[in-house]
């Protein structure tokens, strides 16, 4: 079983590439964003709590995310692999994910970082907001999300490098080229 962390700033193409990897490998896909949006849409207590953080451009508390993730993971497995999309976002979350997987006798196989220049990310997210209707895809909130990413999430690159799991992939250009680079790493993981 392969556990893959797909990583990158908001708008780097994590969801698009995850969909392609699911098609190729038959992996299960856990997108914390999708899970949270479903909770918000259903107006659950979790959804209401999450919405308050999202509206401010802040991260969801770790304990809340770990509980959601463990429940979702257990519901999907056993399977050939799982792609974690949008998680972990902080070093404590990475440590908690490592512990959660170890309790299940497995580990992260690879962390795939999609690298995209910040000006390209802004353009992608503003365009996505025009078509998706996502309220968090506006210039002010995007700038806050990128700031949070750079301050709190980017340090995971060093953490996963120290774990021997980090692989940087150019996250712009033809989708097929990006996907081929991701597959090359997965095949060797």
Secondary-structure map with pairings?
Elements: E1 2-7, H1 14-25, E2 28-31, H2 32-41, H3 45-55, H4 62-76, E3 81-85, H5 91-102, E4 108-115, H6 118-132, H7 139-153, H8 156-162, E5 166-170, H9 175-188
Parallel strand pairs: 1-3, 1-4, 2-3, 4-5
Helix pairs in contact: 2-3, 4-5, 6-7
Structural overview:
The protein is of the alpha/beta class. The protein has a single domain, classed as Rossmann fold. The chain is built from 9 helices and 5 strands. The chain has a 5-stranded parallel beta sheet, sandwiched between helices.
Summed up:
The chain is 59% helix and 15% strand.
Rg from C-alpha positions?
A: 16 Å
What would the average pLDDT be, to the nearest integer? Answer: 90
Beta-strand percentage range? 5-15%
Architecture per CATH nomenclature, i.e. the level-2 architecture: 3-Layer(aba) Sandwich
Compute the separation of the termini in Å. Answer: 10 Å
| Whole-number total of structural domains | 1
> Spans with pLDDT under 50 lasting ≥5 residues?
none
């Amino acid at each position: 079983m392969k556990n893959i962390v797909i990583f990158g700033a908001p708008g780097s193409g994590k969801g698009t590439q995850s969909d392609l990897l699911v098609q190729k490998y038959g992996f299960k896909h856990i997108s914390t964003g999708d899970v949270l949006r479903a909770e918000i849409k259903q107006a659950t207590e979790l959804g209401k709590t999450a919405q308050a953080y999202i509206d401010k451009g802040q991260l969801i508390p770790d304990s809340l995310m770990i509980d959601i993730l463990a429940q979702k993971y257990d519901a999907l497995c056993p399977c050939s692999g799982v792609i974690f999309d949008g998680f972990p976002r902080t070093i404590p979350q990475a440590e908690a994910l490592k512990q959660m997987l170890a309790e299940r006798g497995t580990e992260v196989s690879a962390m795939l970082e999609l690298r995209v220049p910040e000006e390209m990310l802004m353009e992608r997210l503003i365009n996505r907001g025009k078509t998706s209707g996502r309220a968090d895809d506006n210039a002010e909130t995007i700038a806050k999300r990128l700031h949070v990413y750079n301050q709190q999430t980017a340090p995971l690159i060093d953490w996963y490098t120290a774990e021997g799991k980090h692989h940087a992939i150019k996250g712009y250009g033809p989708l097929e080229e990006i996907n081929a680079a991701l597959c090359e790493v997965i095949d060797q993981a």
